[in-house]
């Protein structure tokens, strides 16, 4: 039997993809910059 692979967790979602998580890495900061330039309403979760 194949189980569902997506088991949502609020804590993990924020820790991996949240705004503060983005600020902790150079790549994340660049990503936020790109999204600001594009005019995204939401920069991250």
UniProtKB/TrEMBL annotation:
<dbReference type="InterPro" id="IPR020939">
    <property type="entry name" value="Ribosomal_bL34_CS"/>
</dbReference>
<dbReference type="GO" id="GO:0005840">
    <property type="term" value="C:ribosome"/>
</dbReference>
<dbReference type="GO" id="GO:1990904">
    <property type="term" value="C:ribonucleoprotein complex"/>
</dbReference>
<dbReference type="GO" id="GO:0006412">
    <property type="term" value="P:translation"/>
</dbReference>
<dbReference type="InterPro" id="IPR000271">
    <property type="entry name" value="Ribosomal_bL34"/>
</dbReference>
<keyword id="KW-0687">Ribonucleoprotein</keyword>
<protein>
    <recommendedName>
        <fullName>Large ribosomal subunit protein bL34</fullName>
    </recommendedName>
</protein>
<dbReference type="GO" id="GO:0003735">
    <property type="term" value="F:structural constituent of ribosome"/>
</dbReference>
<comment type="similarity">
    <text>Belongs to the bacterial ribosomal protein bL34 family.</text>
</comment>
<dbReference type="Pfam" id="PF00468">
    <property type="entry name" value="Ribosomal_L34"/>
</dbReference>
<keyword id="KW-0689">Ribosomal protein</keyword>
